Amino acid sequence: MTSSILVLGAGMVGTCTALHLQQRGFDVTLVDRGAPGQETSLGNAGLIQREAVEPYPFPREPGFMLDVALGRGAQVHWHAQGLWQMGKSLLGYLHHSHPLRHAQATAAYSRLIAHANNEHGPLIAAAGAQDLVAHEGYRYVFRTSEAFDKAAQRAEDLLARFGVRFQAENSAQLAQAEPALRRPLAGAVHWLDTWAVNDPGTLVQRYANLFVARGGCLLMGDAASLRAQGAGWSVHTAEGRVQAEQAVLALGPWSDGFIRTLGYRFPLFIKRGYHQHYTPSASVRQPMLDAERGYVLAPMQRGLRLTTGAEFAPIDASPTPVQLAKA
Length: 327
Prior knowledge:
Radius of gyration: 21 Å
CATH topology of the domain at 1-49 and 198-269: FAD/NAD(P)-binding domain
CATH class of the domain at 1-49 and 198-269: Alpha Beta
Low-confidence stretches: none
Strand order of the largest sheet: 7-8-6-15-16-17-14
CATH architecture of the domain at 1-49 and 198-269: 3-Layer(bba) Sandwich
Oligomer: single chain
Largest sheet: 7 strands, mixed
């Protein structure tokens, strides 16, 4: 078999890449070792984050860094071996999080995020996935007035600079909007343009079904079998070896280790997180970030999903879901 382009990895990034290449007239084969959307794209908070126009900077607050170092809180957890392996990359992350360099990154990043809804919208409609997506926004909720006031000021800045719409909600307004909350909170920043997906893995599967319905080829295979062949590439699949002129690697946290075998070095490192579902008698109506504790609650088809902050660990490390208990 011969294809113009191989896309390795059928998560959200790989599947959308395959769809867009297909729309541009390329003959595309999408390859994954499992079903679409069952790895990193499965267990996230399910948000299409139009408000996320700034890349997340390396935190610089001394109190936060002390909490991380001592293993307090649910925002960050680390393995000593993971920090050792990622030390150089994390220092680079810190370097590029300097306000001036971060502003440069934001100028580029925000132009990509501006297209999030406009690009997903037609795919959602074409894939018949409207039942998976709500358009009612996403909240950052705050426990202290100081944090709430600071966040509201930042939201005003993002509105002025990038047109990101929001609504500041005081304690009473938040309680009315989310009656399941039993503890009074200081307030919320309600991002109005963010979309919430109630089953992110299924959304990827619907996109993959659309890709196949439009004539794309979806095969099971292992990216590790990718080999240079002539002027192009080939990969082994359940249907035999597939050749292509070009290859796209969309392997999520497995990308760095794989591209190193090809002789490339990019500033990549991994972080991972955990999620758990609950079936409470009452649930939040819209996804929310507990901004001062570092976890997200999101209503999903399987129940109320709790997602944790970041964990820095070797990619093959056993699970250590201590952040779930803390959250």
